[in-house]
Known about the structure:
- This protein is mainly beta.
- It has a domain at about 35-240: Sandwich (Immunoglobulin-like).
- The protein contains four helices and 46 strands.
- It is globular, with a radius of gyration of 29 Å.
- Mean pLDDT is about 90; it is low at about 1-30.
Amino acid sequence: MRCTRTLLSWALFLVLSWHSRWAVAQLPTAAPAQASPKRQLQALRTTAALKLDGVLDEEAWQQAAVATDFVQQRPNPGVPERHKTEVRVLYDDANLYIGAVMHDSSPDSILREITQRDQFGNTDLFSVFLDTYHDQLNGYNFTVTTSGVQLDARYSPAGGEDFNWNAVWDARTTRRGTDWVAELRIPYSAIRFSKASEQLWGLNFARQRKRDNAQFFWNEVRPTVDGFVNQWGELRGLRDVQPPLRLSLSPYVSGYVNHNPLSGEGSRRTTTSFNGGADVKWGINESFTLDATLVPDFGQVQSDNQVLNLSPFEVQFNENRPFFTEGTELFTKGNLFYSRRVGAAPIGFRHVLVGSTEKLVRNPAETQLLNATKISGRTSKGLGIGVFNAVSNDMYATIRNLETGQERDALTQPLSNYSIAVLDQSLKNNSYVSLINTNVTRAGRTYDANVAGGLFRFANKQNSYALDGRMVYSRRRGNVFGSAAEIDDQDGYKYTIGLGKISGGFTWNLNHGIESGTYNPNDMGILFGNNSISQSFDAAYRKYQPFWKVNNMAFFGQVSHSLLYQPTRYQSLSLYNGFNTTFTKSFLQVGYDLSFSAATHDFFEPRSRERGIPLGTYFVRVPANTGLVVFFNSDTRKRFALGMNAGLQRFGQEPRLPRPRRASYTLGAYPRYRVNDHLTFRYSLDWGLSRNQIGYLNGGLDPEEPLDQPFAGQALLGRRDVATVSSVLSAAYTFTNRMSLTLRTRHYTSNVRYHDFATLAPGGTEQLADYQRTRDNTYNAFNVDAVYAWWFAPGSQISVVWKNANSPGSQSPDFTPLYFRNLNNTLTTPHANSVSVKVLYYLDYLALRRR
C-alpha cells in the first residue's frame, strides 16, 4: 500500500511539473523548430603565395567575398552579433585558406588563456566547419584560439562531436588594436572530398566571445532543431581541385627506465627498454584512408582510474590510446566496439595452474599488440565503409619450480585477431542505415566470437520526428580456454526500437528492447547485463530564450520498467525528474536530479551464473528508494571557479529481516584556480558513503577464493558500510601554444566493513547466518602522471613522462577507516616508477616532394 501511495504521489508530481512546463512553453520564442535558410559563400582561387602570419595583408584577401552578420546561438539564440566578424576563404591547388577578423570593443575584452592542444580554456576562439560531401551528417571542425592553440574534431551521427580526432594543419593569430585576426591553412590532405570538377561543401563559421559567454554562427544554428551539420551553409566556387595523394609516415623511438621494488626473487628491480615503430597513413583514393600502427607503444598514456569493484559487472575504463580514439566514429556505430578489449588482459590471466612446488613469477596483464590497421572513408554517394583489424601475440606466464629453479611458460592467450567491418549509408533528412560485424578469432582450440548487427534512423522531412532501431546477433563457438568443454548455447540476440519527437522545445522518446539470455558481445564490445526486457518513456522541455533572470532552463523526465527475459520476471520500475538552469548575469548553473525506484529484484548480484545456476533462480530484494542530488557550477570566467554536488538516497524497510534501513550519501567538490593565462590548478574530491548495503560476499575479493564451510557453494550476502574517497589534483603550465607541462595525482581509497551475514535462498528469501570470518578490507590506489609535451613541428612531438603508482589493486585485510592514515600508508608503501622519452616525427610525402 505504501508503494502504491508513493507511486501515485510521484505521478501527481510529474503531472504538476509538466503543467508548469507547458505554462512556460506559452512564452514566445524567437527560434522556431525549422532550420534557418542556408547562406552561401564564394571561395576565391589564388595563385599568389600566402604567408601564414595572421596579418591578411596579401591582395587576394581583399578581393575575396566576405561572410559576416553572425547570429548568436547562446546565451540568447537568434540575436545578431554586435561586434562584427568578417571571414574570407581562398584556395589553391594544395590548401584551403581561411582569414577571419574578429572586431571587439577593446583589447581587454579579448580573453586569451593558453591551453594544451584540443583543450578549451577561458579564451575567445574562431572555428571553421566543413561538410566536404555535403551529406549534412558528417563534418570537420578546425578551431583556433586567440593564443593560437589549435583544436580539431569530427562530427558523425554515431560519435557526435569527437575531439579525439587530430589532423595536421596550421594556424596563426595576431592582435590588431581592438580586433584579433586568425589565419588558417588546411591542406587537402587533412580532409576527404570527391573528385568532382566543381565542389559543393557544407560550411559554417563560429566565434566565441568568452567575456559574454556568447557563441555566434555565420549560418544560424537553432538549438530547437535536431542536428548540427544539417544547419550549416554552403561553400561554392571550388573548381578543379583534385584530392592529393595522402601518404604520411610518423616513425617513433622511445626509451624507458622502470623501477619496481616488488619484483620477484631473481628479477631485476630496475630495467630499461628501447622501442621503435611507426604510424602510417595512406589515402587509398579520394575517399578512403588506411591508418596503421606498427609495433605500437602506449606506455605514456594516462593511468587508469583503478577502483574497488563490488558490483557483479566489470569496470569500464576510458580509452586513452591515440590510435583507438582518432577517427573511430564509424566503428562506434551500434556501441558494439569497446576498444579496450584489444590489448586487454589475456583470457587465461586469472587461470594459470601452478603446482604445489611452483611459483608464479611473471604473468603479463596486457596482451602485446603486433599491429593494428583501420580503413575508413565515405563515398560521394554517402556510403561510409570502415574496416578495422588488429593482431595480438601469444602471451605466456612464467612459472618457476622452487626445488630445481627451472622455469616453464604457460600459455595465457594464443595469437588472436580482432576485426570490425562497417557499412553506413547516409540518407536524406538526417537519416541513415548501418550494418556492423565484429569478430575475434583465436589460434588453437580456444573459442571464437562473432557479432553482426544492423541499425537505422529515419526522420521525417521536417526533421521533427524520428524512428530508430537495431537488431544484433551474437555467436560464440569453441572451447573454454584451458578446457576441452564446448561452449553451449552461445547464440544470442538483441533488438531495440524507438520513436520520438526530436525537434522543438518539447521533445519525447519511447523505447522498447529485448536482450536474450545468451546475447554476449563482450569479446569486442561491452555489456553489463543481458536477459532483459526494457521499456522507457523520456520527455524534456528546454527553454533556450532568456527570460526573467535566467539564460536557459531545462526539465527532464523518465519512466522506465524492466523484466527478466527468461524466465519472464519483474526486475524494476523507476521514475526520474531533473532540472537545471543558468542565471543571466552570474552564469551560475544550478539544478537537481530526483529519482524514485519501486522495490527491485536484482538477479545479477547473487552471481548465479558464476556458480552454474540459471539466472532467475536467485535474486536480492532492494527496497523502494528515493534519491535527490543537487548541484551548482559557478562562472568559469572567474579566476576561481567552483562546482559542487550533494546527494542523498533513502531506502524503505527491509522486507524480510529486521535490519537497519539502507542509505547512501554523496558529496563532490571541484574547485579550479587560474593563476594566470599560463598556469591553472584543478582539484576534484568525490566522497560517498553507503550504509547497510547488501551485497554478494566475494564481491571485490578473489573470485577463486572459496567460502568457509558450511557455506561453500551458497549465495552468501553481507550487510556492509562502504566509504569511498577519490581525490585528484592536477596542474597545467602552458609555456606556448605548442609546449606544456602537466601533473596529475590521484588517490583513491575504499573501506568496506561488514555487520552481519545471510544466506540467500531461491525466491529472494534471506536467513541470517553465523559466519565468523572477517571480511572487512581497505583498498588503495595511487598514481602520478607528469607529462612534458612539445609539438616542435606540425604533427611532430617530443614527450617526457614520469609515472608513479602503488601496487595495482593493493588491498589490505586491515580495515583502516581514517582517510589520512590511508593516504600516509599509501605514500609510504613501495611504488613503481617509470620515466620515458618518446620522439615522434611526422613525414608528409607531398611536403617532401615539394622540397
